[in-house]
TrEMBL record:
Stored Pfam families: Kelch_1 (PF01344)
Protein species of origin: Glossina fuscipes
Protein name in UniProt: Kelch-like protein 20
SMART domains in UniProt: Kelch (SM00612)
PANTHER family named in the record: KELCH REPEAT AND BTB DOMAIN-CONTAINING PROTEIN 13 (PTHR46375:SF3), KELCH REPEAT AND BTB DOMAIN-CONTAINING PROTEIN 13-RELATED (PTHR46375)
Keywords from the named record: Kelch repeat
Length: 243
């Protein structure tokens, strides 16, 4: 990339990969073209952020909150412009944030640093209003969030849960045998992949193995390890391949 990025967020849309924010880069964002194999800058965000949630909805990229941030904005790749949206009601105590889309709603789980637990919020982009999903989620300060069908999957350190949005109820699911921090979680077909990270927070003992959770079988398996060390970055799926 054009800039070093740490605790950035990544997403794919229309065959391209977008990487936004991070400790070092803050407001800037870049786009990767798999055909030309080049990164190019796009318009900078209105606010700097890291550890933010990211997802796509109706051909727009949404970035949500992040460490000590409550602002939300979306990006239109067709116009190369960012637009501010309604702030998430997490206030200045928000921390690590992850987002995913289920049934045309954007769900975001936020690490509430001051209270030591996670909260889940839901945004209907058509109404532009955030609602609180009442039940508390886990207690991890490092987690991934993906969606499948009517469900939201929360993958945390030693705590994994599934939310059926029709019932608005969280239930526990198995956790991978190997706990890790600073990992990335993505979904492809019926499988959730957890990759990268380290064994303990700031231990710098990197994990190169990849864990795969099959949603239909409700079970984890370990698959081939990565060739690189990957921590506190972003991952996205393009045409069934990880970037």
């Amino acid at each position: 990339m054009n800039e070093a990025r740490h605790f950035n967020s990544a997403i794919s849309i229309n065959g391209a990969v977008y990487s936004v924010g991070g400790y070092e880069s803050n407001r800037t964002a870049e786009c990767y073209n798999p055909v030309t194999k080049r990164w190019n800058y796009i318009a900078s965000m209105n606010y700097g952020r890291h550890c933010c949630g990211i997802c796509t909805h109706n051909d727009l990229i949404y970035v949500v909150a992040g460490l000590i941030a409550s602002s939300v904005e979306n990006y239109n790749p067709a116009t190369d412009k960012w637009h501010l949206c309604a702030n998430i009601p997490a206030g200045g105590s928000s921390g690590y944030t992850r987002s995913a889309v289920v049934e045309n709603n954007i769900y975001s789980v936020v690490d509430m640093q001051s209270d030591g637990f996670n909260l889940c919020f839901r945004l209907d982009p058509r109404e532009g209003r955030w609602d609180d999903v009442k039940e508390m989620v886990g207690g991890s300060n490092d987690f991934g969030l993906v969606s499948y069908g009517h469900s939201l999957f929360y993958i945390g350190h030693g705590c994994c849960k599934r939310l059926d949005v029709r019932m608005n109820k969280w239930e526990s699911i198995p956790s991978p045998q190997l706990g890790r921090y600073g990992f990335s979680a993505v979904i492809a077909a019926d499988d959730i992949y957890v990759l990268g990270g380290e064994t303990f927070y700031r231990a710098r003992q990197y994990v190169t193995s990849v864990d795969r959770f099959n949603i239909r079988k409700n079970a984890w398996t370990a698959i081939e390890s990565m060739a690189i060390k990957h921590i506190a970055g972003g991952a996205a799926v393009v045409s069934g391949c990880f970037d």
